[in-house]
Design a protein that fits this description.
The chain has 2 domains: 12-96, no CATH class; 126-351, Nucleotidyltransferase, domain 5, CATH 3.30.420. It has 12 helices and 11 strands. The protein has helices at residues 24-45, 113-117, 124-127, 133-140, 198-215, 260-271, 294-301, 304-316, 318-324, 326-331, 338-351, 376-404, and strands at residues 12-13, 16-17, 56-61, 76-81, 84-90, 152-158, 163-171, 174-182, 247-249, 285-286, 291-292. It has a 4-stranded mixed sheet with strand order 8-7-6-9, with helices on both faces. A hairpin with a 2-residue loop joins strand 4 and strand 5. The radius of gyration is 41 Å and the shape is extended. One of its GO terms (cellular component) is cytosolic large ribosomal subunit.
Amino acid sequence: MTTPGNSVSMETKGNRSTRPRIRENSWSRFSDQKDRTRTWILERLGSDDGGDGEGIRATAEEEGNREDGDGGHGGGIQIESNGVSCCFLPYFSLDHLQISQGAMAFVKAQKSNAYFKRFEVKFKRRRQGKTDYRARIRLINQDKNKYNTPKYRFVVRFTNKDIIAQIVSASITGDHVLSAAYAHELPRYGLEVGLTNYSAAYCTGLLLARRVLKKLEMDQEYEGNVEATGEDYSVEPAESRRPFRALLDVGLLRTTTGNRVFGALKGALDGGLDIPHSDKRFAGFNKDNKQLDPEVHRKYIYGGHVAAYMNTLMEDEPEKYQSVFSQYIKKGVEADNIEDLYKKIHAAIRADPTEKKSQKQPPKEHKRFNLKKLTYEERKAKLIERLNALNAAAANGDEDDDDDE
């Protein structure tokens, strides 16, 4: 069935049509919208220089004029970018595009007062960009059948001049640090330069592991891997106490292969801690054959990569070597003796990992320039003293007057 003045076919079933009747003026309004949309697209993108699209071009295609053999469409607009076909907009779909007069408009989202009244801010350390709460929740969640047993984390953080390694457990009142080790403690063991590289991270992790085990009186039972060979090592449970277990906490750090945080992890593992891990991120891991090269990893543990760079600069750029490794030269550290230096440092850490408290000077007593506040008794005594002085002065004045007469 076809209605007068309208080309839309209407299927009937009995005396009722199965589709809603479209009025003639409504259909013409849709047609006008499609024509305006088609005209706008062709004017904006249909010129030879690409219009405003910088390499984007639109061309009109009539019915059945496409190269892909699809001749069933009713015409449309072909969009091309730098000569490559991107998409095809059929004319019948243009009534869904809302084009404003003159240009395409981006309407700013209006947020009402009710939106801001119900807005919930994120945690403070999330707003500051300091804590990944998705990772933290999974690190501190404890099984309910373990009750108040602390769940320890091996936390490693890097600054410009220092490395911080801590054993931390979470509680409802905040994090509690069981033990900590810092790279600025390494000069006590013989390492005075290069306190933030992969080798120093290994030493810091080793120092923390030996320190926490000594604090828990487990250092004799779990000695760990005494000589670092670069191979993966995991501590085995002893007959009495199980090894101290902690989870690696890297914070917001990108866990790339060979990152210094895994140097600290390797040091803690060799020190005797039980930390779940994989060798895929240690320095020297080959992703092609999916195996760890122990020799390459050993070179990084003993500062071989630093020695290689020192030799390269000494041969190619002596002036840059004097600048980059000025502190090494000042301390007498050479490329040939770096490995022996780190071996001595590892032995010294195992010999005495305890923390040494530094003697701090007592605070100076600063001179007070403001008046000290007096107590009630002091003010009362001062008032009595002033009254006595006034009475004495008055009595002396009376005596002087009598003498003059």
